[in-house]
Design a protein that fits this description.
The complex is a heterodimer of chains A (630) and B (357).
Chain A (H helix, E strand, L loop, with lengths): L1 H11 L4 H7 L3 H30 L9 H35 L8 H23 L24 H29 L12 H32 L13 H35 L6 H14 L15 H13 L1 H15 L8 H23 L2 H7 L3 H31 L5 H27 L16 H31 L28 E3 L6 H4 L14 E3 L7 E5 L6 E6 L6 H15 L6 H17 L3 H4 L4
Antiparallel strand pairs in A: 1-2, 3-4
Helix pairs in contact in A: 3-4, 3-5, 3-16, 4-5, 4-6, 4-8, 5-6, 5-18, 6-7, 7-8, 7-9, 8-11, 8-14, 9-11, 12-14, 12-15, 14-15, 15-16, 18-19
Chain B lengths: L1 H30 L14 H33 L15 H10 L1 H18 L21 E7 L2 E6 L4 E4 L1 E5 L4 E7 L4 E3 L8 E3 L5 E5 L5 E6 L12 E7 L1 H12 L8 H12 L2 H4 L26 E2 L4 E2 L2 H9 L1 H4 L12 H12 L3
Classes of the chains: A mainly alpha (630), B alpha+beta (357).
């Protein structure tokens, strides 16, 4: 047995050295890379936010020039949406989904690694543009005509148009990967109605990405064509239409915020169930709500465009549709309340973040209903009221659950607990700082302050509110520094966690912390939604005679079990490819095209040759993969 | 170790917090009646008042929902244990979900959406937005104003009265005025919070909105769609006047430039005609032909305005002179270039511009 154990570990260990590091394809490695990189971008975007709050602390300051301020707020929004929120949700999914469904890796490990390299190359290039002072400066929403070749002749918007298109390749890759993994690689017995809610939320997110991202790619490609080869999709003087951009962008942009929010609700469901010690009440309701949110989110985009001058009747249809989204969200919130009900959950930091999520997200949902009503939106659209609203739903609705998730799953990833003392310090400071910064903005907006202004006149009654917001942002920064210190110190010297510190219900808590490279030596047979509560003490390392496991031949190659889509009946053995450097080389080749095309179209044919070589290298058959007789 | 690190931080935080809370409270108390504040909650027109009533309806309903739902969260978390959490009898289960998912939101949403329909109709009138189906008669009224957005100022025409001005819009009190909005360059948004919600100015499209002020006064508007470098300082003023004052203003504005006899003013006029000013700024009765297109504001009655630089600085000699010599010092990134003049010519130009009442 021991020999076999070593052999399995050996098969799943990546090659040594730098090349090995760059070749890694294991979902846990890629997942952690996504999470760490996106937290890095979160920090950068946070620094940009501090710069903005510094500039707005008092009226008439000159800390940033208007040009610099416009780049800073554009990069803040672009980073938070494209480089932080979506990638981190995907990263958490990439790390956790295989563990939760009893799989050894994802369906396409090399594609996974390719997606990561595309993401980091696009993100770093965008920040290089900021360092050079030529970052995009027309807002993350990048409205034309301001962003077209006449009014933004510089290279700034070219960075936006090409890199956003490029970046979405990474999002699409991860989406395909997640969908196939969940539908084909679940442990036997994990029928569709036994999938953990978090995994459902990832599936819904992935499908939304699949349909939403092509819309933004179309809109940015049109823009790139307008800017480089003089097409006129958006030029009104030449029979184009600038409002087309808004429709395309928001048809993506509204699902985008639910792409961020849906997986966050998955996290809430998991943490709530584990801390309450009770299975999620209304499982079917929760899943249907996720799916309903996914569908509804594609029918709301015009509520970003109430002031454009579209016919009133049409606007009110979108207002009513936007109000409808309160129903699935209400179902989710009350399902969590029912799950918590009288279970006396422990008030640890993870659960405090969940309570904060309720506090801020419910408020953000209510202001969301307010801004979805047409005439009130005419007043507060593009004011600080909206800034307060969407930070409530994006920070409160997605980042707070993410923090809860980090406290909850950190022990699984590192084997050590995060410090509760530092956790509570950073929690309370964050909550106080958050409300000083963003709660005040409701008033700032109602008192007439528009968004995206680099300064303001001193006699309009906004000074105190802005100063308060700026002070609050410094408090948030302190809270985040403590959070960061907590991660660094706890990863080295935190309390050792063991495999299941929370006495939780789902399969990721069955494997060791941190999990072995191959996740499950023996694949469990699942017979309920809460496998670890149904069969306490299940140990996937124990391959001696339990009837709840299926053995895979583990002495030849990376293998996992393929199961049927609905009932998860084993139907195949999937041979996974070895780690490879080619995904990185392909990502570099594709970036050469995307980034190079800003300077010369000749990079397209030259890059195509590189891509051709990289694809051949990627798919070149290796003897060891196919020598085995089945 | 963590404690010793955090204690001084905690002390500093407490000080910052106190400052911030004090600042917020003073603003909330004083901010509500800052004169000239473009506050949504200080409506002076019927449309803004309707919308404010919608806000308060939603505010009180929202507050109720918030207290109820978050109260339930806290109650669920802190009530005493209801028995083994794994037994279905220990939780209200699906009844709570049916209540929170359907019984609670549906009636409230019905009220909000219903009242929203009522207000959106009541606040807009027949010829709202870019509706091409409405008859031509409804697209023009006696008091019609064509508002054209520019980076970063507002061009104002009264087509029926043949008045052209910029950034300051006079309207009669108590009469609905039809605004037709479009843009010469990028998208801007017209928003005077005390009178009405905002509506965009979009190139190639004409949006319509009715504005009415119930009291005389000066109401500030700020461009509400990001339009470039000086978006922040693209303000306008709506000056609502009693009918007689307003009509007097109109008849003054209809006059072209008066004849000039004073040698200093003649010199100033020559400076104007001989420098770059003339290519962008029109003075009616003097250089309509020279200014090829509308690039800068019409200056025929510039001295009668209260403000300069898109309603962001007071119209006085210091600001006017500073603006001419170095507009970028006041509004970096603005499209007007600096002008170099010797002191004699500069003085003459200022006198000339100040005579344009």
């Amino acid at each position: 047995m021991a020999a076999s154990a070593d052999r399995l570990a050996e098969i799943w260990t990546r090659p040594p050295g730098l090349v090995g590091w760059l070749s890694a394809t294991n979902h846990k490695v890629v997942g952690v890379r996504f999470i760490v990189t996106s937290l890095g971008f979160f920090g950068l975007a946070g620094l940009l936010a501090l710069l903005m709050r510094l500039q707005l602390a008092l009226p008439g300051l000159h800390i940033l020039s208007p040009e610099a301020y416009n780049q800073v707020f554009t990069m803040h929004g672009t980073t938070m949406m494209f480089l932080f929120a979506v990638p981190i949700m995907e990263g958490v999914g990439i790390y956790l989904v295989p563990l939760m469904i009893g799989s050894r890796d994802m369906a396409y490990p090399r594609l996974n690694s390719f997606g990561y390299w595309v993401y980091i190359i696009a993100g770093v290039t965008l920040y290089i543009s900021l360092l050079l002072g030529v970052a995009p400066d027309a807002g993350w929403f990048n409205y034309v005509p301001l962003a077209d070749r006449y009014y933004s002749p510089g290279i700034n918007i070219d960075f936006y148009a090409t890199l956003i298109t490029f970046l979405e390749v990474a999002a699409l890759v991860a989406a395909v990967e997640l969908i196939v993994t969940v539908f084909k690689c679940r442990a036997p017995g994990m029928t569709l109605n036994r999938i953990p809610i978090f995994v459902w939320s990832q599936v819904v997110m992935a499908f939304m990405i699949l349909f939403a991202m092509p819309l933004v790619m179309v809109s940015t490609i049109f823009l790139a064509l307008d800017r480089t080869v003089d097409t006129n999709f958006y030029v009104s003087a030449l029979d184009g239409n600038p409002v087309l951009w808004q429709h395309l962008f928001w048809a993506f942009g509204h699902p985008e915020v639910y792409i961020i929010f849906v997986p966050a609700t998955g996290i809430v469901s998991m943490v709530v169930a584990a801390m309450s010690g009770r299975p999620n009440v209304g499982y079917i309701w929760l899943v249907l709500s996720l799916v309903a949110v996914g569908f509804l989110s594609f029918g709301l985009w015009v509520h970003h465009m109430f002031a454009v001058g579209l016919p009133l009747l049409g606007l009110n249809f979108f207002a009513a549709a936007s109000a409808l989204i309160a129903i699935p969200n209400g179902i989710q919130i009350f399902s969590w309340i029912a799950t918590i009900w009288g279970s006396r959950p422990k008030l640890n930091t993870a659960f405090l973040w969940i309570l904060a999520f309720f506090f801020v997200f419910i408020r953000g949902g209510i202001t969301g209903i307010m801004v979805a009503s047409v005439p009130f939106d005419w007043q507060v659209h593009d004011t600080y009221f909206v800034v307060a609203h969407f930070h409530d739903v994006l920070i409160g609705g997605a980042v707070f659950p993410l923090f809860a998730g980090i406290y909850y799953w950190f022990p699984k990833v590192t084997g050590r607990m995060l410090s509760e003392r530092m956790g509570k310090w950073s929690f309370w400071l964050f909550i106080i700082g958050y409300h000083l910064t963003f709660f005040t903005m409701h008033f700032t907006g109602l008192f007439g302050m528009p968004r995206r202004i680099y300064t303001y006149l001193p006699y309009l009654g906004w000074n105190g509110l802005n100063l308060t917001s700026s002070i609050g942002s410094a408090v948030i920064a302190i809270a985040l520094i403590i959070f960061l210190l907590n991660i660094i110190t706890s990863a080295r010297s935190g309390e050792v966690a063991g495999s299941d510190p929370w006495n939780a219900n789902t399969l990721e808590w069955a494997v060791a912390s941190p999990p072995p490279q191959y996740n499950f030596r023996a694949i469990p047979i699942v017979s309920s939604r809460d496998p670890l509560w149904t069969h306490p003490g299940f140990d996937p390392e124990d391959t001696t005679g339990s009837n709840r496991v299926i053995f895979l031949a583990d002495d030849q190659q990376r293998e996992q079990l393929g199961t049927t889509m609905l009932d998860a009946i084993p139907d195949s053995r999937i041979v996974l490819p070895q780690p490879s450097i080619w995904p990185l080389l392909l990502a570099i080749s594709v970036s050469f095209i995307f980034i190079g095309v800003m300077f010369s179209v000749w990079t397209v044919p030259i890059g195509a040759v590189f891509v051709y070589i990289a694809v051949i290298g990627w798919t070149y058959p290796r003897e060891q993969d196919w020598s085995r007789e089945f | 170790m963590t404690q010793s690190v955090l204690q001084p931080v905690a002390r500093r935080c407490r000080r910052l917090l106190v400052t911030a809370v004090v600042a917020t409270l003073t603003t909330l108390v004083s901010g509500c009646d800052t004169p000239g504040q473009p506050s949504v909650l200080d409506p002076t027109g019927p449309a803004a008042a309707q919308i404010e009533s919608l806000w308060w309806l939603m505010f009180w309903l929202g507050l109720g929902v918030f207290v109820l739902v978050f109260g339930l969260v806290l109650y669920a978390s802190f009530r005493k244990r209801t028995g083994d959490p794994r037994s279905p009898a220990s939780t209200p289960g699906k009844w709570l979900i049916l209540f929170g998912g359907f019984a609670l939101p549906i009636p409230i949403l019905a009220i909000v959406v219903g009242y929203n329909l009522f207000v959106s109709e009541a606040a807009t009138g027949p010829s709202f937005a870019a509706n091409d189906a409405i008859p031509d008669a409804a697209t023009s009224a006696e008091w019609t104003i064509d508002l054209i957005g520019h980076q970063f100022w507002w061009e104002v025409h009264y087509p029926n009265q043949e008045v052209v001005t910029a950034n300051e819009i006079h309207i009669p009190v108590g009469e609905p005025v039809l605004f037709r909005l479009t843009s010469a360059d990028v998208i801007h948004s017209f928003w005077v919070p005390q009178l009405h919600g905002k509506l965009d100015l979009i190139p190639g499209q004409t949006n319509r909105i009715w504005i009415e002020a119930e009291e005389a006064g000066i109401f500030r508007g700020i461009c509400a769609e990001f339009c470039g470098t000086q978006h922040a300082m693209m303000h306008l003023l709506i000056i609502a006047q009693p009918a007689d004052e307003f009509e007097e203003w109109v008849s003054e504005q209809q006059q072209p430039i008066a004849e000039i006899n004073d040698p200093l003013l003649i010199q100033g006029q020559q400076v104007f005609m001989g420098s770059a000013c003339v290519y962008c700024h029109t003075i009616q009765g003097m250089n309509e032909a020279a200014a090829t297109d509308t690039i800068g504001p019409d200056l025929t009655h510039v001295a009668s305005r209260l403000t300069l630089a898109a309603a962001t600085v007071e119209n006085n000699r210091g600001n006017l002179g500073g603006w001419i010599l170095d507009p970028h010092g006041i509004k970096p990134g603005v499209l007007m270039p600096p002008t170099r003049l010797n002191s004699e010519n500069f003085r003459a130009l200022l006198f000339f511009l100040e005579s344009l009442r």
